[in-house]
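Can't paste images in this forum, so I'm doing it all in text. The chain is below; anyone willing to post the predicted structure tokens underneath?
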Amino acid sequence: NALYSIVDRMYIGHMPGVGTDALAGIGLTFPIIMVISAFSCLPGMGGAPLASIALGAGDLPRAQKYLSNAVTLLLGVSVALTVGCGVFLKPILIAFGADAATLPYAYDYLLIYLLGTVFVELAMGLNPFINTQGYTITGTVTVVIGAVLNIVLDPLFIYTFGMGIRGAAVATVISQLVSAIWVVGFLCSKRSVLRIQPKLLRPDWEVLSTTCKLGVSPFIFRVNESIVAILLNRLLLWYGGAAGGLHIASMAILTSLSQIFFMPLTGIITGAQPILSYNTGARNFPRVRETVHYARLLSIGCAVAMWAAMMLFPGGIARLFTSDPQLIQLTRVTMRVMFCTVLVLGMQMVNQNGFVAMGNTFYSFLFGIMRKLLVLIPVAFLLPHWLGVWGVYAAEAVSNLITTAVTYVFFERYLGQLQREWQCSGAATRSASPK
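Text version of the structure:
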């Protein structure tokens, strides 16, 4: 899934003569793209766990309602985002830090990308309903076919057809269209236990309310990325001085790497989510604890491997995105500063998303906003007073450590509380049953 924007940036960063400015322009589009994808989390990451919990409790009709209302919500959101962002696109980009050099690239890319908003929402928002039924291969194919198609179409539209940055956007929209057709087709077929039913598309406000309450945590997590990207870009322009534009381009590379880093971790918790949700509905604590244990092992292992690659080979990784020697040299330093503690997020991601999978709306919201809004942003404003522009990058490293420690403590307490409640409930049931 991350390949959609990553591949675009790789090809765009190597465009002859204009690669660095074009890459900086794409970096400025990141907040808007993250907001668009964030809205898919409300029905997807909110509705799918609740549908799975309903399946675990044997309530198929309610699970069907969560899916069909998710479709309605996604279509409504798509229209609102396309119109809203399209009308105010230039002022938004200028507010995010676009200048005369980068605005044309950012504008051309996003204008086309917005036309495919409905495909992005349907593909990303409905795919969790496939995974939550246990059809993991089908869910994987959803993103694989789009990502592979994007890799093939990018050079064709950018270079062969001479469309430049517009070609990258067209390739992405076509790829998302194919993914959306695949998802909707499966969820309307007889293979799917949960099916999109026209009679259930009418909004059920109680279903939509519970969906959005649970989905707000992953939604906030992605919106956090958007807000932080805007603020960090402004801070880089302020403290970077004459090299501010170069720092923006470097941050574009780092945000791409951040997407690559988080996607496997998100994939692991997405794989764990149906098991956690189903067994939460069934009150099977040993299975819940076992799932958390193995998810942590996988997530921490992935995080450590990616951290080692970024610490050992920053220059080689930067060359994948650009051939500008100045930008490569800068990114060698910024990558090591920004990601020096990122290995601990393997633990944090499992704990934070565990709250979502188990239906805890309060903690999922609290820890969804903590790392970025409550910790990173204040630190990012403080550290540059002593470290200059490098403090902007170091703020990420500091926030990783603080948030991981706090989330771990609360999640372990929550698991202990659930174990005691379920044990007491089971004992009460047994004592009340006939001898």
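The chain has a mean pLDDT of 88. The radius of gyration is 22 Å.
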